[in-house]
Structures are given as C-alpha cells and as structure tokens.
Here is the input.
Amino acid sequence: MRLAIHHTPGSFSEKWLEYCRARGIAFKPVNCFDSDIVAQLEDCDGLMWHWAHWDHQAIQFARQLTYSLERMGKRVFPDSRTCWHYDDKVGQKYLLEALGAPLVPSRVFYDKAEALAWVEGAAFPQVFKLRRGAGSANVALVRSKAGARRLVRRSFGKGFSPVNRVSAFKDRLWHLKRDRNLRALAGIGKGLARLFVPTTFEKNTFREKGYAYFQDFVPGNAFDIRIIVIGERAFGIKRMVRANDFRASGSGTIIYDRDEIGTSCLRPSFEIAGKLGSQCMAFDYVFRGDQPLLTEISYAFLQSGYEGCPGYWDRGLAWHEGKFAPEWFMIEDFIASFGTPREPVR
Here is the structure.
C-alpha cells in the first residue's frame, strides 16, 4: 500500500505525515494542483488532501478531482460523500432534510418576489446566511421585516462579497478585547489593511447572489455544541456565545469538560454520519429546550481548537480518557478502509 499526501502547512497533513514517518508507512508527496496529478497517482492506492474553503484554487476543482479519482478506483480523503456539501449551507439544507436530520427550520428562495412575500408573513428575528463562510462569517441576525427586505433585494441585486471585511474587522476587535495580547493587536493592523485591500480569495471568487437563505433563530442559547465524528469515535466542545452577540462559532471561548458537553448530541451525530457515509464530520447544534437542532456541518475544522479535548466517546457512548490527535484517527481509518470492498459512488 502506498498513500499520496498533498501537504499544506498548518493543515491535517502535518499529522498525517508524522503518522506515516513514525510507522514506516509508504507515502508519496504530491501536488494536487499539477495538471498531471491523475498520472502521478497511478502508483498510489489513495490520496489524502485537506483542502480548505478559503483556498480559491482548490474550490475550483477539488470535488471534481475527488469524484474522478473514485471512478478510477482510488480511495480519497475526504471522499465525495464527505466533501461535496462542504462550505455549502444551501446544499446542506437539502441533504439534512432528505436524511430526516434535526435541522433548524430553514428556507431558501431563488425568486425575489417569492422571498419578499415570505418576509411579510415571517416572524422575526431570523438568521440570514450566505452559503459560504466559516467561523460565523456571513451570518447575520435579522431583527425586522425592513432588514430582511434589504437583504433580499441585495441578494437579487448586486449580491454579497464572500468576504465581509467589516464583520471580519469587528471580529478582530472582539478578539483583542478578549485576549489583550500582541497577537490580537497585530491582527487589528492586518484587519485595517483588509478593510481597503481585498484578499486573493475575494478577488478570485464570485459574489453570492441569486438566492436568499434564512434559518429560524433559536433563542436562549448561550452556547452551541460541536460534535465531530470520525469513524467509530466522537469528541466535542462547548463554544460560548460572544458577548452582545448570538454567534458561538469563531468565538474562541471553548469548554472541554465532557460533563458540560453531555451526550444528547452524540447519538444523532453518529446516526447522521452513518447515513452520510462520511469519513469525518463536524455537527453544530443549538437547543430548543432539551432538543438539539443542527445549524450546519463540515468535514474540516481548525485543529488547534480540539487540543484540549480530554478524550472521546465510541459509538456505544463509552468514554475513552486521554489525549489524541484527530488527524491520526483519519489516517488510521483511511488505511483500514483498504481492507474492505469499496462501495461505488453513484
């Protein structure tokens, strides 16, 4: 067996390479951006590539390459089942509804008049989202019909940049107030520059327009729960909502105590991951009373946010105490998958 690994500094691949070197597993470094990548993979059994939503080059072809390699008989991480809906909240809406998952009631409109008609009968506040963006980027609380009308008209007019520079700068200010360190202060300088100079991603990405996506606002949540399922294991964190805000994702205020996280989100996460056939999936939950409700899902996550996890649960909800590397779970499962028949992707 020989693995191909595309290495991106700071990504999952750091630990994948460490795992292979420590255990003498044959691997071949590859660059998925090479035109002849398919030919390069001829002598490999599978490809592992952690591509990110902010990589404007990767999002142009990563899904297409993945599907093509699967048709070639290669195994891929993330595979099509795991990544086709990545950073696509609209796609996730249809998928989770189709699976009967406990999704927060959500609606998407592709017609301006229909969207405006819905606004007139809707209860507010509502949460407005663009299909792309992580860490609570491109998510806004809409408190009134007037605000919703403005967003709908813009959705079907000039649209939205996939990068909200003002919101990003406000997030940097929030982190400075919270952390009060040199790193956060340096972030302010970078954020000021970004107010006037677009990122490479922004310059090379289309504006979001032609649809309007709203999700019910679920009040009374001082936190959300994120559960990550990798194979037969699940671990989680409790993310506190930012001060004077409704968003928990991206706050950086995290609780790792398993008693604080609880187990109410574990069974639905394992169940949905099984239906998806996913290799790795993060599930974000808010609560209506005692009922956990999903807001979105993602195969990728920021590794540093999980270093404090004291252990993980198995599918039977038994607790396994001790530190771990999620990336090692990924590569262990990937290697083990070569011993099982591959179900074709249709």
User: Anything to note?
Assistant: The chain has three domains: 3-77, 101-216, 223-335.
